[in-house]
Specification:
The protein has helices spanning 22-32, 59-67, 71-77, 124-137, 187-191, 215-218, 256-271, 317-337, 342-367, 384-405, 408-413, 470-479, 495-499, 523-530, and strands at residues 12-18, 38-42, 56-57, 87-91, 98-103, 120-121, 141-145, 147-154, 159-165, 170-180, 196-200, 205-211, 226-229, 236-240, 246-252, 278-285, 288-292, 296-297, 300-302, 308-309, 458-463, 483-488, 503-506, 512-516. The chain is of the alpha+beta class and 544 residues long. The strands form five sheets. Strands 1, 2, 7, 8, 9, 10, 18 and 19 form an eight-stranded mixed β-sheet that branches. Strand 13 and strand 14 (236-240) form a beta hairpin. The N and C termini lie far apart (50 Å). 49% of the residues are buried.
Length: 544
């Protein structure tokens, strides 16, 4: 059952989130699971199914959904199960010649112990519906639908937000913190004086969703999550939204006017033959490569599209925004609970900006070769010239597009290099390469994921028998930092060697905060750094 709108916002909340898209809702789930009283203000009364721009939930996002207890709910709602297809096909049309194929794409295939959750293809509206339900199920979480943030003002102690409902009525809400997840036209970004830096592509694109009951009968290439159509009649990208009759398409280099006029022609050209079809919605857009000059002003933060924009190729945009929500969510919750210090909030931009900048670079690189750049003569010809043209096109596709569809090193391999909550690395330790990176995953002998054992706050992971841990446990208790201890006396084969240390302090986002074989002499200083209190200096650690 989908949530209904609350008629009136409360007078005060701990965190107000402007925008109830996937990023804002993800932030509310991350906060609500930690008992934070938060409010999501969203203009749309219902989730829109008209323009499902984002369709790729990568491995990392699915790991977060698993941590929230929502992964299976999401998969059960997804119209395309991962078992149905894990392929991307390049072809001259859906009924024409196949030029090349990628299999096991976008993290949709398991890779042993590397991750506990494979990726999932799902329209954005499915994710939003699941997250709306989750926010309503969390006691501290509230949605005010059909309303929007129209102004925000800040002082040292509070943020005052003006909320306007659908009838034009206004009310004031105070909050300890505000997160602007209100997209490219962000009111929050405007009010704090932040601005996008970067540029945009010169070529327009025309997106649409259409229904064609008979199209699957004519597809010559079998199931795929994407079909890249390399045809002068309509260079395009197309894919199914379900296994029956609904499709999405992007026509490259087509502006709004031409797209509206030629939509039916584009569908026929993509199909490679005339087909019955009904255009359900259109969405003209131009790729933007932009990031804000600052993501924070005092108690106000920006996340998702309000903070950064990238071309959609590779499916990184929504997933990067979910990463923003997770990072900021647990840090705000730590501060509000009293165990997180000032450094922990300062770390948000220093940790997320390099990730966002790399995603923009990678997505921009993916955009350099689209169907328009692959056009060549004779691709549909039946003679030797056609065979040569298709071989050449296939070789170029494999050379230029592999990184787009096999990007797990980007998705899972990002490492926090600089952060105010990162302890100084010991010199010459190979294991230090995992500090600031996602904890290596492993399945235990009983089939459980190691990630399922991690706590909601800091986790101390100990490997092997007799591993010293008492000083860290005592330091966390003295500082009031919640700590879960996970002991693996006999870790899975080779895992201790992979991690390169017997002790690891893991953050709530499954990122390794510290590694070592022995507890450092200044255990208090270590805990202070990870909890954002490094500036206060360590006091003597008293034994209980």
């Amino acid at each position: 059952m989908l949530p209904v709108a609350h008629k009136h916002p409360p007078q005060h909340v701990q965190v107000l989130i402007a925008g109830g898209g996937p990023v804002g809702l993800a932030a509310a789930v991350e906060l609500g699971r930690r008992g934070v009283d938060c409010l999501v203000v969203e203009p749309r009364a219902t989730v829109s199914r008209a323009r499902p721009r984002c369709k790729t939930l990568n491995v990392r996002t699915m790991e977060h959904l698993r941590r929230w207890g929502l992964a299976e709910r999401l998969r059960s709602r997804a119209p395309l199960p991962t078992s149905w297809s894990q392929d991307v096909v390049f072809c001259t049309s859906l009924t024409g010649r196949e030029l090349s194929r990628f299999t096991g794409v976008l993290g949709l295939a398991p890779e042993g112990d590397r991750f506990p959750e494979i990726g999932q293809q799902a329209p954005q509206y499915v994710l939003e519906e699941v997250l709306r339900e989750a926010v309503e199920e969390l006691a501290p979480g509230r949605l005010v639908l059909g309303s929007k943030l129209v102004d925000v003002a800040e002082d040292d102690d509070l943020v005052t937000v003006t909320v306007e409902d659908v009838h034009g009525g206004r009310s004031l809400v105070t909050a300890d913190y505000v997160i602007g997840c209100d997209g490219p036209r962000s009111v929050v970004r405007d009010r704090i004086g932040s601005r996008y830096l970067g540029g945009e592509a010169l070529r327009p694109n025309f997106g649409m969703v259409f229904k064609s009951p008979d199209l699957w009968k004519h597809v010559a290439h079998g199931p795929a999550v994407q079909y890249w159509v390399v045809s002068p009649a309509a260079p395009a990208l197309v894919g199914p939204l379900n296994r029956t009759d609904t499709w999405w398409a992007i026509a490259f280099g087509v502006d709004r006017t031409s797209g509206e006029r030629e939509a039916r022609h584009i569908i026929d050209a993509v199909a490679g033959r005339p087909v019955r079809a009904e255009v359900l919605s259109t969405d003209p857009w131009t790729a933007r490569m932009q990031i804000v000059d600052r993501m924070r002003h005092g108690r106000i933060f920006l996340a998702g599209d309000a903070a950064h924009l990238n071309p959609p190729f590779g499916g990184h945009g929504l997933n990067t925004g979910i990463g923003d929500a997770v990072d900021l969510g647990w840090k705000l919750a730590a501060v509000l609970a009293g165990w997180g210090g000032a450094d922990i909030l300062d770390s948000y931009e220093s940790e997320r900006r390099p990730v966002q900048e790399r995603v923009i670079r990678e997505a921009t690189a993916n955009m350099r070769v689209l169907s328009t750049e692959l056009l060549a003569a004779d691709l549909d010809a039946d003679d030797d010239a056609g065979a040569r043209a298709r071989r050449a096109a296939g070789a170029r596709i494999q050379e230029t597009k592999t990184a787009e569809f096999h990007s797990l090193d980007l998705v899972l391999g990002l490492r926090i290099a600089t952060s105010p909550i990162a302890p100084a690395e010991p010199r010459g330790r190979p294991s230090a390469t995992w500090a600031g990176a996602r904890l290596p995953h492993v399945f235990l002998e009983d089939g459980r994921s190691l990630y399922d054992l991690l706590g909601d706050h800091l986790t101390l992971l100990t490997l092997g028998h007799g591993t010293p841990e008492a000083a860290i446990v005592d330091a966390a208790r003295l500082r009031g930092v919640p700590l879960t201890v996970v002991r693996l006396p006999e870790p899975p084969a080779d895992y201790a060697e992979l991690l390169g240390a017997r002790l690891a302090l893991v953050r709530p986002d499954q990122v390794v905060g510290w590694l070592g074989d022995q507890v450092p002499e200044d255990a208090l200083g270590l805990v202070d750094t990870l909890s954002g209190h490094a500036r206060r200096g360590g006091a003597a650690l008293q034994s209980p």
